[in-house]
C-alpha cells in the first residue's frame, strides 16, 4: 500500500478513528493527540495489512490497541462529566436516550467499551473476535453481559 492509498483509506474510515478517540479521551486536545497516534500506528502497521480481513476490521484492531496502550502510558486524570462532549458527525446526538446510552458506555471498562462499540457498528461476532483476540463464543457471552450491565446503568439513571 502506497502513501496515496493509505491516505484515501484513512479519509474513508476516519469516523471509526473519531469514535475510538471520543470513547477513550475526554478533552478535544487529548482526542486530537490520540487520533494522530492512531494514524501513526496505522501507517507503521500498514505493511502488515494483508487484506485477509476488511480494512475497517484491521483499523479497529490497531485503533483500539493504540487507545488502550496510550491510555496506560499517559494515565490521565479521568473525570466523567454529566454531559458528554459532542460526538463526531454521523452519530445522532439529539435524543435523550442516546445521551444516556453514551454516558453508560463511558462507564464501562476499556475492554467492554471496545466490544460494545464494535457490536454497535454491526460487526459480526467473528469480526469482533478477530479484532479483540477473543473466541466468537466469548464475544457472545461478553456482549450479553455488557448489555445487562448497560441495562442496569440505564435503569439507575432514571
UniProtKB/TrEMBL annotation:
<dbReference type="GO" id="GO:0003677">
    <property type="term" value="F:DNA binding"/>
</dbReference>
<dbReference type="Pfam" id="PF08281">
    <property type="entry name" value="Sigma70_r4_2"/>
</dbReference>
<dbReference type="InterPro" id="IPR039425">
    <property type="entry name" value="RNA_pol_sigma-70-like"/>
</dbReference>
<keyword id="KW-0805">Transcription regulation</keyword>
<comment type="similarity">
    <text>Belongs to the sigma-70 factor family. ECF subfamily.</text>
</comment>
<keyword id="KW-0804">Transcription</keyword>
<dbReference type="InterPro" id="IPR036388">
    <property type="entry name" value="WH-like_DNA-bd_sf"/>
</dbReference>
<dbReference type="InterPro" id="IPR013325">
    <property type="entry name" value="RNA_pol_sigma_r2"/>
</dbReference>
<feature type="domain" description="RNA polymerase sigma-70 region 2">
    <location>
        <begin position="9"/>
        <end position="75"/>
    </location>
</feature>
<keyword id="KW-0731">Sigma factor</keyword>
<dbReference type="InterPro" id="IPR013324">
    <property type="entry name" value="RNA_pol_sigma_r3/r4-like"/>
</dbReference>
<dbReference type="Pfam" id="PF04542">
    <property type="entry name" value="Sigma70_r2"/>
</dbReference>
<feature type="domain" description="RNA polymerase sigma factor 70 region 4 type 2">
    <location>
        <begin position="100"/>
        <end position="150"/>
    </location>
</feature>
<dbReference type="InterPro" id="IPR013249">
    <property type="entry name" value="RNA_pol_sigma70_r4_t2"/>
</dbReference>
<protein>
    <submittedName>
        <fullName>RNA polymerase, sigma-24 subunit, ECF subfamily</fullName>
    </submittedName>
</protein>
<dbReference type="GO" id="GO:0016987">
    <property type="term" value="F:sigma factor activity"/>
</dbReference>
<dbReference type="InterPro" id="IPR007627">
    <property type="entry name" value="RNA_pol_sigma70_r2"/>
</dbReference>
<dbReference type="GO" id="GO:0006352">
    <property type="term" value="P:DNA-templated transcription initiation"/>
</dbReference>
<dbReference type="InterPro" id="IPR014284">
    <property type="entry name" value="RNA_pol_sigma-70_dom"/>
</dbReference>
Amino acid at each position: 500500500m502506497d502513501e496515496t492509498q493509505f491516505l484515501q483509506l484513512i479519509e474513508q474510515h476516519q469516523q471509526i478513528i473519531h469514535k475510538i478517540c471520543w470513547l477513550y479521551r475526554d478533552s478535544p486536545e487529548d482526542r486530537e493527540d490520540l487520533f494522530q497516534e492512531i494514524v501513526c500506528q496505522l501507517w507503521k502497521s500498514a505493511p502488515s495489512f494483508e487484506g485477509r480481513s476488511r480494512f475497517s476490521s484491521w483499523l479497529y484492531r490497531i485503533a483500539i490497541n493504540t487507545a488502550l496502550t496510550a491510555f496506560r502510558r499517559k494515565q490521565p486524570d479521568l473525570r466523567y462529566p454529566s454531559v458528554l462532549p459532542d460526538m463526531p458527525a454521523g452519530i445522532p446526538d439529539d435524543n435523550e436516550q442516546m445521551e444516556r446510552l453514551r454516558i453508560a458506555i463511558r462507564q464501562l471498562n476499556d475492554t467492554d467499551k471496545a466490544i460494545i462499540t464494535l457490536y454497535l457498528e454491526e460487526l459480526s461476532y467473528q469480526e469482533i473476535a478477530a479484532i479483540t483476540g477473543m473466541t466468537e463464543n466469548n464475544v457472545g457471552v461478553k456482549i450479553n453481559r455488557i448489555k445487562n450491565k448497560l441495562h442496569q446503568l440505564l435503569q439507575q439513571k432514571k
